[in-house]
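Summary of Year 1 activities. Much of the first year was spent building the evaluation harness for sequence design. The harness presents a backbone, in tokenized form, and records the residue chosen at every position. We chose the following record to illustrate the format because it has been used consistently in internal testing since the harness was completed.
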């Protein structure tokens, strides 16, 4: 069975998991109010998603504003233990899968130690949030490899070294993703072999920065990086924005391209698909309506 989802904001309801404030305004009381609102909106989004049969969702990194920053001194996982646990119960009751995807400043392979330290703090925060929901290791934190810094082999080695020293509770959630400029799918698969981390397949990134081997040849190896405790492999889909910057996501998704990716991935087992489109759930609703996905809701293969 394939679960479909989108990221962070529901355009159809106007709800978001990313209510935030400026750093100078981040007092404990301000942060408490924002956290409460984000958790309320997350609960409403999950109810909305359940009504539509969408069972994957990426929680915004600001669901706990400044969650990895020293300015946030709250023990939020204790103060908000009850609503967090309730969210987790809802997710489990409806067979949903949550993820988080720290932003562009989370770079484990940076040559700058301060950046590496702050990146680790962000991963620990994202892990703590999913842990606070009472969810197992199938609920993931997605991370790109990072920069090339003029020496890709050395940069890749830094990532591998950093990944191997991460706390176990972070490693059990971490999955790695290729990108459109620095590290293609084949390169990330090689990094996965050395780190024992699962790999997310991103169709747009592969189209813009392809490996020497086509995705069809690499996907068996990609899917095999996912073990039983990781859950089904995750796939990202988006269409290139026409006239937008290289790698920019379109508002909507091309249904022909979407169906082709589903058919390709289906050959290798069960998987979950995250739609990365600017129109969020409106785009997901449209592309699912334009594609016959009924057979994907009854897949019986097991991921390799």
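For this record, the design step produced the sequence shown next.
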């Amino acid at each position: 069975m394939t679960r479909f989802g989108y990221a962070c904001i529901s355009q159809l309801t106007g709800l978001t998991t990313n209510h935030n404030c400026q750093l100078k305004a981040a007092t404990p009381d301000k942060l408490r109010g924002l956290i409460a609102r984000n958790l309320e909106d997350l609960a409403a989004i999950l109810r909305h998603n359940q009504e539509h049969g969408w069972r994957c969702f990426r929680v915004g990194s600001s669901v706990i504003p400044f969650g990895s920053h020293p300015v946030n001194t709250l023990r939020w996982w204790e103060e908000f233990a009850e609503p967090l646990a309730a969210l987790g119960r809802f997710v489990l009751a409806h067979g949903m899968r949550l993820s988080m995807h720290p932003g562009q400043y989370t770079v484990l392979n940076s040559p700058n130690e301060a950046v590496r330290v702050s990146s680790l703090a962000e991963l620990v925060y994202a892990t703590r949030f999913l842990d606070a929901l009472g969810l197992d290791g199938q609920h993931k934190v997605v991370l790109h490899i990072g920069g090339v810094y003029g020496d890709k082999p050395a940069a890749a080695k830094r990532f591998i070294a950093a990944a191997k020293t991460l706390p176990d509770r972070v490693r059990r959630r971490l999955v790695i993703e290729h990108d459109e400029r620095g590290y293609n799918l084949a390169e990330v698969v090689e990094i996965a072999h050395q780190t024992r981390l699962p790999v997310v397949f991103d169709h747009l990134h592969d189209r813009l920065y392809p490996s020497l081997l086509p995705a069809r040849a690499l996907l068996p190896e990609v899917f095999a990086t996912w073990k039983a405790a990781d859950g089904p492999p995750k796939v990202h889909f988006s269409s290139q924005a026409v006239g937008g910057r290289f790698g920019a996501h379109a508002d909507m998704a091309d249904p022909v391209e979407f169906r082709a990716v589903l058919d390709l991935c289906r050959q290798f087992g069960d998987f979950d698909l995250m739609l990365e489109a600017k129109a969020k759930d409106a785009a997901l609703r449209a592309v699912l309506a334009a594609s016959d996905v009924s057979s994907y809701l009854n897949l019986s293969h097991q991921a390799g």
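The chain has eleven helices and ten strands. Quantitative recovery figures across the full test set are reported in Table 2.
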